[in-house]
Each structure stands twice: as structure tokens, then as C-alpha cells.
Amino acid sequence: MLGPGRYGLAALQVGDRIETGRRHVSTALIDAFAEMTGDRFEIHMDKKAAQRHGFAARVAHGLLVLSMVDGLKNQAGAQFEAMASLGWDWEFTGPVLAGDTIGVMITVEALRATSDGKRGVATLRFDVTNQRGETVQRGTNALMVYV
């Protein structure tokens, strides 16, 4: 587990891990995301509609949760000396409901330097769990980092 600090490519190893803090998913966050994006699909906005679709409570937008995941990464004690995100390969594996709390385990899967030698790409695996330890999202992010 990486300790607090900032890590560039040269300081990272495949298998290094970061455990983030946790974040509560409130109805207020769901409402704010719906307002911001215009995505008002009924399972996000109405508990009874969500229940008609088989969910116990309102369902958080998958992209809201992914955005929260990136925020948790950027608030963790261990930080990457990042330049830019190059892309995400992502799965929504279970619902995140209003009232759930999520946390993330980040694992360094691959490292490669770029041809200029001043930066590199870290491939990071994300495993997102709820308060019951159930995986609700997972995937990878290619992150451009300084050496």
C-alpha cells in the first residue's frame, strides 16, 4: 500500500495500491448530477419508479459514481504526479443506491515511459465497493504522469 505522498512514474511499481476514503451517495448528489447533466431517467429521480424496476431505492447515475471515483482518487493521501487522463475502460457491475457509501482500491497494473523520457503512462485498475463490500463498478484508467 502506498503511503501518503506524491508519486511519479519512477517511484511506482506494478502492484502498488492505494485505498481511498469513502463517500456517501446522497439523494442531493443524485439530484445535482441530474440537474447538471439533464439525465432524469426515472430510476434516478423517483423511488417508486426505481422500485418498479426492481431496485430498493433511487439509483445513482453510473457516471456520477465514476466521477466520484475520480474525486476519491484525487483526495487520497497517496497522489500521482499526473498530467492528464488518457481514457477509461469501465463497467457498472451493480447498482449504487441512494444512501450507499462507496470506496475504491486502486492498483497499478502497468507502467511505461514515453519516448521523450519526461513522462509516462500508468495503467490503474479501480475496484469500487459499497458499504457491504459488493463490487459496484470496476475498470481501468490510463493516466499520463510525470517521471
Automatic annotation (TrEMBL):
Residues 15-123 form the MaoC-like domain. InterPro entries: HotDog_dom_sf, MaoC-like_dom, MCH/BMMD. It comes from the Bacteria. This is MaoC/PaaZ C-terminal domain-containing protein.
